[in-house]
Amino acid sequence: MTNTSHESKKYPAAMVNITNKCNLRCKHCFVFRNANPTSIQNEMSTERMLEKLSFLQKKHEIHTMLWMGGEPLLRPDVLKKGVTIFSKNHITTNGTIDLIDFPDCIYIVSLDGPEQYNDAIRGKGTYEKVMRTIEKVPEKFESKVMCQCVVTKENETLLEDLVSLLTPTRFEGMTFSFYVPPANDDSRLTWHTTKRRDKAVLEVLRLKDLYPDFIWNSKRTLELTLSENCKSVTERCPSKQYVLPLYLNGEEFTTPFCCYGNDVDCDLCGAWVVFYLASLLEKNGIENYRDG
Ligand SMILES: C[S@@+](CC[C@H](N)C(=O)[O-])C[C@H]1O[C@@H](n2cnc3c(N)ncnc32)[C@H](O)[C@@H]1O
Ligand code: SF4
Ligand code: SF4
Fold first, then answer.
1. pLDDT of residue 285
2. Over 70: is that where the pLDDT of 3 sits?
3. Which contacts qualify for 75-79: CB closer than 8 Å, 24 or more apart?
């Protein structure tokens, strides 16, 4: 499954995988699934990558870039110049490498639960490393720093513990994104049906009432994720329509089926970005990129 209809389209946002290298191997990660290109041989040079991104920015009039990997902070030279190409930048990072300060940038730091669960998914010692990175962020840091937690069947009862741990820290807020499984997923992470996922979505809605400012998912975004609504969103996926995915494939970028790669189960997709864009479209505009 690859995307071929994107050639001349305008995209308000794009997502770029700037390296397939990563110092972690998280159990839920869609990047390293077999159907996706993840070779680390002959990765595109920084210069060529910046040229290509400038070209694509103009061609598709891309406003916001979502920087991804692998681990994007393993290519600081790409980020340092790359963020100047786009009006807004979101950098998703595993938080084990020091953050670099950029204006008009949001760092989305991944943590998937309290220490014991996070480390079971992301690797031993990662929770502690992320906390050290966050503590080092100076008060006068221009980038915003937030957390993203991927909710799965395994951590759905641990979410409030994570929120309580993070509210006193340097994190300015957090979003919950629900697991995007591959087709025929038989892992312990999946709920198998969206009806069974509802328990987790309702838990995040409950937390939203308790921590309205810290949790950045809007209530509407979460309501759209519920089983009664989600199919009507995912069958006309707004992320596929408005976010151009660019995966690194040696010396080229290739566009996979969607941001989550080539082997996805749309019916069970719970990606925050999908339901967030759907909620914006309901309000007739996608210029404002802040859920809340
Ligand atoms: C693929 S990672 C790349 C950036 C960086 N290495 C990190 O971990 O943040 C980007 C985000 O996707 C999330 N993610 C990975 N696999 C996922 C899946 N199957 N469903 C939903 N989100 C997923 C990660 O937890 C992370 O927050
Ligand atoms: S740190 Fe990010 S890219 Fe690396 S394995 Fe984990 S989720 Fe995937
Ligand atoms: S619904 Fe999810 S998995 Fe399907 S195309 Fe959209 S982002 Fe990809």
1. 62
2. no
3. 75/18, 75/19, 75/46, 76/100, 77/46, 78/18, 78/19, 78/46, 78/49, 78/50, 79/18
pTM over 0.85: yes
Compute the distance from residue 31 Cα to the ligand 3 centre, in Å. Answer: 14
Helix (H, G, I), strand (E, B) or coil at 86: coil
Taking the alpha carbons of 20, 95, 175, 284 in that order, is the dihedral positive or negative?
Answer: negative
Pocket of ligand 3 (CB under 6 A): 180, 234, 237, 239-240, 258-260, 264, 266, 269, 271, 274
Rg of the chain (C-alpha set): 18
Query: Domains of the chain, with CATH numbers?
Result: 13-282 (3.20.20.70)
- The response to whether residue 171 sits with its C-beta less than 6 Å from ligand 1 reads no
Atom of ligand 3 nearest to the CA of 260: 8
Closest CA to 230 of 168, 262, 278: 278
Give 9's pLDDT tier (boundaries 50, 70, 90). confident
Element (H, E) at 42: none
